Amino acid sequence: MRDIDKRYDAVVACKSASLQVQPGEIRALLGSNGSGKSTMVKILAGTVKPNGGEILMDGAPVTINSGLDARNLGIATAFQDLSLIPTMTVLDNILLGVEPKGKWGTVDRAKAGSEVEALLERFHINCDPEAYVQTLMPSMQSLVEVAKAVYQKPRLLLLDEVTAALHRDEVQLIFGVLRELKAEGTAIIYVTHRMNEIFQICDTATIMRSGETVAHVNTSEVTLDEIVYYMTGQRPEAVSPHEAEAAHGDGADLVLDVEHIALFPKVRDISLKAYQGEIVGIGGLEGQGQPEFIRAVLGLTRPDDGRIIYRGEEVHFHSPADAVMANIGFISGERNREAMFPDRSVGENVFAGRAAKGGLFRFLTDRKVRDFAQAAVDKYSIVVGSIRNPASSLSGGNQQKLVIARWIAMNPTLLLLDDPTKGVDIHSRRDIHKILRQSADEGMTIIISSSENDELLEIADRVYLFYEGRVSGVLSGASKTPERLVAAMMGLTREQNGAAKETRQA
Amino acid sequence: MIDLKRAFARFRRSPAFAGFTLFLFVVILNILVQGPGQFFGMRNINTLFSKNMPLLLATMAMAVLLIAGTLDIAIGIQLALVNVVSIMVMQQWGVSLLVGFALGMVAALVASALCWLFCSVLRLPAMLASFSLIYIVRGINVLIMPNPQGRIAEVFYKTYDSRILGFIPFSAVFLILVLAIWAYLMRTKFGRSIYAVGGHPRNAFAAGIDPVKVQFQAFMIKGFITGLAGISLTLMTASGNPLQAEAYGLRSLSACIIGGLGFGGWGSMASAVYGTGFLVLIQNAVYYFFDLLFKLIPGFTVTSYWQNLVSDIIIFLGLLMTIVTAKEQREALKQGFVKQFKGGDSVAKQG
User: Fold this and answer.
1) Residue A465's Cα: distance from chain center in Å?
2) ipTM score of the complex?
3) Structural domain includes residue B276
4) Residue A412, Cβ neighbours under 10 Å: how many?
5) Does B336 lie at the interface with A, CB-CB under 8 angstroms?
6) CB atoms near residue A308 (< 10 Å)
7) Alpha carbon distance A173, A178 (integer Å)
8) Three-state SS for B339?
């Protein structure tokens, strides 16, 4: 394999992205949220088809339309969200698709068994090959996922954030195996968000931003700051966590005080305070525990550890209904999955939050619903044909405004928003920001999680940055700069930054 | 000894264990109410096999589909299709019943291919698609044979009720044949693919398996087993009836679930056998239990509906038990999570 060159346009996920990797090279593929790195991996693995561009292997163009094509080309992938079949055993999972042939078309299980034992030994995976994958711990599953990819003896190995669920020792173990593979001439593409890992294991790095590849570098020639600059367009400026904690003290009432909450596996230890009339932002890379945190506060999931103090009292919500009764509102960016009733009318959608609060059999007239909805639609300038039309007839931005209107109209004490402007056009976004700011000024407390840094900087009074299930930085007032935001987002707190530099020098 | 222990531990974790426990329970119950002499008597065993072979085979056909992550509740009426085709071919064309059986088998395969087209290719919900298939097949059955009729030669049903070497019920040949074929398939690539497709189609596709193709193979195997079940039904009833056995579709599904099969890639063929065994034997046991009551308590009489009620309640409890065992498996998983969460370091030390 000489080059993999891949360009394709017309998709938002990736535009004219390219990537090359040589045998015996470990190349890091880096990028921040939605930069298209996972899409690149999926295209090579055959689970997503590109709309354009070409892939070259050994200088010849190839097409990858399915997992089978990828496998035949010698490409093996370990996915972030795992490709194991939970109801099958470890042995069967590793062998899946590459079963050694025995007599009369059967699978040679004796031979396979000893091979897999050796493989598990190599990864120090201490489990019964006949154990069902669904009974294994998540970290063990990640190791098996990598072992499965390695078992195929690939020429190109793709690893998509496989270390996310792993302990430090286990990561070193995988690195050991990767170095062996590298010596054998395997090309490896390694996707991660852990910056210090890059310098430990990778030779080169390709950095993506907004679907474009912005730089190809040798890791020995760049500093961490430069990489972060390429990823985000900002020079990072390290912060120490909890710096801004004390900064807030203008005497407002504490509405929500979350102490050391933990929810396995994503949330490890998060504390957060929100005061009345304040907009608190939650930022960070994708998958650092933001949605899990918000849902824990809402009572959708129960945290393993920690306390949630709401309006001065410790609360244990058993379901979102409890939280709504306690005047908490929740708006999800996943409109279709968690917020909308697309086939019901606009009016009913606005009224849904209100309906949740009243008695189940309370008498309700059509007129009441209509008036309430009409008022909300007018107030928040939602563009509708008629409030009797189904909600699915609205544009994405207006749908989102609809959901926000639903909750704001109820005037909750605390409003939780999980990436509310995802896929929303710029105009609607501005409207939504205006509504939120206005509500906050009227005394509502708002916690908003967002994957867009600009949005956080613009709207939030204080920003909490999550990294690996912990708070890596709190920014407010003067410390609320793009540079610091980026640094905290990458987990570059002062201590860690030093550690990463040391590793590099070593 | 250690090997034996390990094997037992594995068996305990396997999905068939719940079904096996229920099966064992009901066998013991039968021995208690009938006495071992009568229960294990040649006649009793032979009757049990010959009368219940169609249901057992239908359940095994259903098990193949469940493992592949789909289902077909029209299996029952397809038994009648095979029956109707076999009888009418013999009657109308004056050929041997064996030719009729061959064409009946073809009819079962065609019906299965149709269901595959609905469920796997067009991706209609399997429950609804196969439900509509019931009416299609029933209509075809009545077109071919408007009312119950026909007789098969004595030699056929006499053979079906006979015993090989004096102790193996002839009907058990069907069971042994299917189990042997299945045991072979489980040792091929297909055996792994079918579980992968049922367990997680997307990941199976990523691993280079074509789910639609594997499901087609599954439907063909199901068609073959359904064909055998229809032949067995014809031999058992010795005549033709276009509207019989429809309930086998849902009964076979419940037998599968009781035996420990899940929807998609969970469970084994053994589960199907245990599940059917439980369903059949519980009715047997309740029948003999009431028989015992009649004898012990003079003047005690109830209608047979009471027997059905009691056996249905026990079946319901059996279904409940499968939920309990599934919950235990989830608990084990959760404990693993907590262990990992609390002791990241200790786990790492092992490694």
Assistant:
1) 13
2) 0.75
3) yes
4) 21
5) yes
6) 19
7) 9
8) helix
Q: B198 lies in a domain?
A: yes
- Placement of tokens 């899946």 in the chain: A96
Question: Smallest CA–CA separation between B106 and chain A, in Å?
Answer: 26
Closest alpha carbon to A310 in A277, A338, A272: A272
Question: A74 contacts in B (CB within 8 Å)?
Answer: none
Residue A19 DSSP one-character state: -
Owning domain of residue B188: 16-333
How many CA atoms within 13 Å lie on the side-chain side of A209?
11
DSSP collapsed to 3 states, A375-404: HHHHHCCCCCCCCCCEHHHCCHHHHHHHHH
Cα distance between residue A86 and residue B196, in whole Å: 9
Compute the mean pLDDT over every residue in chain A, rounded to the nearest whole number. Answer: 76
pLDDT in tens, B58-82: 999 999 999 998 989 999 999 999 9
Quick check: A135 and B187 CB within 8 A? no
Q: What is the pTM of this model?
A: 0.73
Any A CB within 8 A of B288 CB: no
Picking from B196, B210, B351, the nearest residue to A96 by CB comes out as B196
Asked if B188's CB is within 8 angstroms of A85's CB, the reply is no
Cis bond before residue A265 (omega within 30° of 0)? yes
Give the span between the Cα atoms of B313 and A115, in whole angstroms: 49
Residue with tokens 């200088």: A59
Q: Matching CATH topology for A26-232 and A237-327+412-506?
A: yes
Distances in Å between the Cα of B108 and the Cα atoms of A177, B84, B156, B235 are: 52, 11, 21, 17
Confidence of residue B205 (pLDDT cuts 50, 70, 90): confident
Cα–Cα distance between A331 and A427 in angstroms, integer? 19
Percent of chain A clearing pLDDT 70 (strictly above): 84
Please report, for residues B90, B91, B229, B241, the alpha-carbon distance to residue B96 in angstroms, rounded to integers and kept in the order given: 6, 9, 19, 19
SS3 B153: coil
Phi, psi (degrees; rounded to nearest 5) at A257:
-130, 105
Q: What is the spatial distance between Cα A405 and Cα B335, in angstroms, rounded to a whole number?
A: 42
CB A29 within 8 A of CB A41: yes
SS3 state of residue A189: strand
Interface test with B, best of A49, A125, A132 (most B CBs within 10 A): A132
Cα torsion for A124, A130, A133, A137, to the nearest 10°? -50
Q: What is the pLDDT of residue A502?
A: 42
pLDDT tens-digit series, residues A48-72: 777 777 788 777 778 888 888 888 8
Eight-class DSSP state of A237: -
Residue A360's identity, in one-letter code, is L
Q: What's the CATH number for A237-327+412-506? A: 3.40.50.300
Q: Is B70 helix (H, G, I), strand (E, B) or coil?
A: coil
| Of the candidates B233, B258, B257, the residue with the CA atom closest to the CA atom of residue B245 | B233
**What residue segments make up the domains of chain A, in order of their start?**
26-232, 237-327+412-506, 345-410
> How does pLDDT run across B295-330, given as a tens digit for each residue?
888 877 777 788 888 888 888 888 887 777 666 655
- A98-112, B220-234, B274-288 — most confident range: B220-234
Task: For residue B2, tell me if it sits in a domain.
Answer: no
> What six digits make up the tokens of A236?
């990072």
Do residues A17 and A40 make contact, with C-beta atoms less than 8 angstroms apart?
yes
Report the CATH number at residue B24. Answer: 1.10.3470
**Are B347 and A167 a contacting pair at CB < 8 A?**
yes
> Which residues fall within 8 angstroms of residue B198, CB to CB, at 6 or more apart?
A87, B66, B67, B68, B69, B70, B264, B265, B266
**Is A26-232 a CATH 3.40.50.300 domain?**
yes
Tally the domains of chain B: 1
Mean pLDDT of B30-38: 85
In a domain, B153, yes or no: yes
Q: Are A320 and A412 in contact (CB under 8 A)?
A: no
Tens of pLDDT, residue by residue over A11-30, are 556 677 777 788 888 888 88
